[in-house]
Amino acid sequence: GFSPPGWFGSIMFLPGGFFIGNTNLNSLQECFLSGNYLERQPGRFLKIAVGSGLAMVTGALVLMAIVRNIYLFFLAITAMGIGTGLVLPAVNTLITSAAAREERGIITCLYGSLRFFGVALGPPAFGLATAWGKLALFLTAAALVALTTAFLLAFVRIEKILPDKLLPDNN
User: Fold this and answer.
1) CA distance 134 to 136
2) 97 with 163: CB under 8 angstroms?
3) DSSP summary character for residue 41
4) Could you tell me if 53 and 108 are in contact, meaning their C-beta atoms sit under 8 angstroms apart?
5) pLDDT one-digit tens code per residue, 24-43
6) How many CB atoms lie within 10 A of CB 50?
7) Residue 100 Cα distances to 80, 108, 120, 161, 170, angstroms
8) 62-121 per-position pLDDT tens digit
């Protein structure tokens, strides 16, 4: 009988890999675009970028909780990637700009370490949380992101964090 070559099975997984890789590509592309824009308009766009990016992530998580269609699910993942890509450059700018120049290296190092702890601990934590079910998992995550967004909008004051040269009035 016919036996397909060994590489045939790998090719069959390409469409799934494309969809998964596409979400990372969207995140990377949005990081690049928002980072370029932030470079030109530093203080004017930061809070808007973080708030709207987190709102996109919240909406995507809610959508992921309620949809059954795989294409809508990947659309939600893509929206979450774009939201994350919108948030990261702005948060990087806020954190590094909040520190004095002589402390910036250690602050950047601590921020990077904490971020990668989240990257490392996120998958096992979400893996354990799958026992709650899809709806509870994604809605709990959406609620946490929504609370973070509300905290940002209520308490983060760009004018107190950024140095004067990055504030919108001084550009």
Assistant:
1) 6
2) yes
3) S
4) no
5) 788 888 888 888 888 777 67
6) 25
7) 32, 11, 29, 11, 19
8) 999 999 888 898 889 889 999 999 998 888 888 887 777 888 888 888 888 988 898 899
